[in-house]
Fold this protein.
Amino acid sequence: MIKRTRVPEKLNNSAKNIIVLILGTLLSFLALEAIVRFYPSAILLSYLEGRGTFKPSKWRADIGEIAPPHQKGSRCANCFRIYPIYSNSLGFRGKDWNGNKGFRIAILGDSCLEGLEVEEGESTSVMLAKLLNKDIFNTAISSSATFKQVAIYKKFLRPLKPNLVLLFFLPDNDILENSCELTELLVGKNNMTNPCGYFSGNDIKIRTGSQRRLPPDGVIRKFIKDNCKSCIILNRVIFQLAYKMLYKHNSIYNQVYLPVHTREWREAWLITEKALSELRQEIENDGGKLVVFIIPAWANTIRDAKELNSAIYNHFPEGFDLNHPIKVTKDLMAKHNIPFLSLMPYLLEYRDKFNLEFPYFSYRCDGHWNPLGHFIVSHIVAKYLVENGWVPFPAQDKDILLKKIDNDLALPPRKILGEDAYRQIYKRGFYCGHSDAAKVLEQN
C-alpha cells in the first residue's frame, strides 16, 4: 500500500497565494493594456510617450543639435501633454517663414522661446508676430546658448537680413553652456553636442560639438516597446519614483548664483561676453540691430522661499543669490551698450497684482512657461519694442496697439487661460492643452 504524503496546509495556502498574485498581476497588465490601447487619457499618454514623440534634436556638424524638419509630434511630462507640435522645413518650431514682407524680426533663444510646452499659436513668437503684425523668424531651440545662436544666425538668418534680432538670454543656463569646461564637467566629454568656448592661453576659441551616439535597442527591448504599452508606462512610473529618491542634483547648475566666482565661472562669463560681442557685430555688419531680453529662471518668480524645495530647484549652495546672474548680465549689456530689458520685474508685477499662485507662469513639474507665461511675455516685449521705436508704427496704429497691450495685461489669469485650463494648471496639476490665450489675443 502506497502511503500518501499530506501537503501541509500552510504550504498549500502559500502556493494558492502565489498563483492568485501571478494571475492578478497578469490581469492587471491586460486591463492596463486594454485601457491604454482603447481608452487612452492624456495622463496615460504622457507616460507612454515619455518626453513626447516630437524629436527634439538631430546633430549637424556646423551647428550642433537641431530639431529634424517636417515633424508632427507631442511634448509630454507628468503634468502636461501638448499635441500636435510641428517643425518647419528648417527644423524650427512652427510654419515655414515668409521673408518677403517689409520689416523683419528674428528671434534667437533656447527652449523657453521654442515653446514646446504650449500649443501652436500660444508661443511668444507667434503672439508677438500677431501683436506687431510683422514677420518673425523664430530660431529658438532647446539647449541653445550664445555660441550656438551665433552659428544659427549665420546659417539661417543672415540670408533673410532681419532688421531686428531679439535675443532671449537665460543667464541661469547660457553662461554654463557657453563654456566648454563647465559643460564637460556637467555632461561629460562624449555628450558635448553644441558649440562652446574655451581659453587657449589668453585667447578664447570656439569648439564645435560632436555627435552623440546612442546604443540601438536590443531585440527583447524592441519587442516590448512595440507590443507592451503597459510595460512602458509601468517602467516610466517606477523610474520616476526611483529618480526622485536617488537623484543627486549636480551642484554645477546652481554655482551661477554664487556672487564669488571660481576660475571656471569667471572664464565662463568672459566667454559669454565674447559670444555676445561677436553676435552683435555679425548682426550690425548685416545692417540689423540687436535687442536682448533677459529671462528670469523659474526660481526668480517664487513668492515664498520655502518653494525652493520644489522638484525643480532644491539644492542651492550656501550664500546663493537668485538675482546675481541677472545683475551681472545687466552690467555686461550696459558695458557694451547693448539695448536690453529684464523681464523679471514685469512678471513679478503681474504675479502680485492678481495674487497668482504656484506654479506662477510655469508648470508643477516643469519650469518652462505655460500659456499664461507666453501671453504675458509677448505683450511685455511688444510694448517695449513699440514704445522705444524699435519697430516702426504710424502714430495712430501705435496708440491703438499700446492700448490693446495695456488692456490685455490688465486681464486676470482666469480670463486669459479660461476656467478649464486655469483649473488644469493651478488646481488639478495636469494640463491637457486648449487654453483661451490665442483667442483672447485676437480680441480688440
About this structure: DSSP finds 17 helices and eleven strands in the chain.
